[in-house]
Design goal:
Elements (H helix, E strand, L loop, with lengths): L2 E5 L2 E6 L10 E8 L1 H33 L11 H4 L2 H15 L2 E4 L5 E2 L1 E8 H15 L20 E7 L2 H12 L1
Antiparallel strand pairs: 1-2, 1-4, 2-3, 3-7, 4-5, 6-7
Length: 178
């Protein structure tokens, strides 16, 4: 029986969280949305693409500022970026995602405390990677691998979960390395 993800009493989807564990407190696996979850996937997976676009805008502004002798502290968006629709989109999607109040429940249905839950659209990520590779290496032909008839369709979505205390452990680990 899989772990389940809920939003305000609605089943969003499920996952076995069966990927190999790479860090203490980090779980990942294929994610299968429920019918309601499928309708919410644009919000659930939309923050990543919106941030990618925002970071592209911010990088261009930063390069422009550097060419003109201005420096913006790392980690801050300059006012010219905060005034863009890309910034507004990224911030509103983040707020929408937070408003879903995603919760992870274990095999018995009990709430599992988490620092965060993140779902990725793998079809979109693969398509973006292929487009970037084609742009960087136009002389190469990037064809999709053809699946064997007995191979299952790869999952569209993957989920990563930071269990409660994960962020704190990662911060302590980073401080020890300094």
């Amino acid at each position: 029986m899989p772990y389940t993800v809920w939003s305000r009493g609605r089943l969003i989807g499920e996952s076995e969280l069966a990927y190999a564990r790479s860090l203490p407190g980090l779980r990942a696996g294929d994610f299968e949305p429920s019918p309601i979850g499928e309708k919410l996937m644009p919000i659930i997976v939309g923050v990543g693409p919106a941030l990618k676009v925002l970071y592209g805008v911010a990088a261009e502004v930063r390069r422009d500022d550097e060419r003109n002798g201005r420096t913006i502290p790392i980690g801050e968006f300059p006012p010219s970026v905060r005034a863009t629709t890309e910034y507004a989109d990224a911030m509103s999607l983040h707020d929408e995602l937070e408003s879903l109040s995603l919760e992870l429940h274990d095999l018995q249905g009990a709430l599992v405390k988490t620092d965060w839950i993140s779902v990725r659209d793998m079809q979109r990520l693969v398509a973006e990677a292929r487009a970037e590779l084609a742009q960087e290496c136009p002389e190469m032909v990037w064809e999709e691998d053809e699946r064997e008839p007995w191979e299952p369709e790869p999952p569209r979505y993957q989920i990563m979960v930071g269990l409660e205390g994960f962020e704190e452990r990662m911060e302590r680990r980073a401080r020890r390395r300094r």
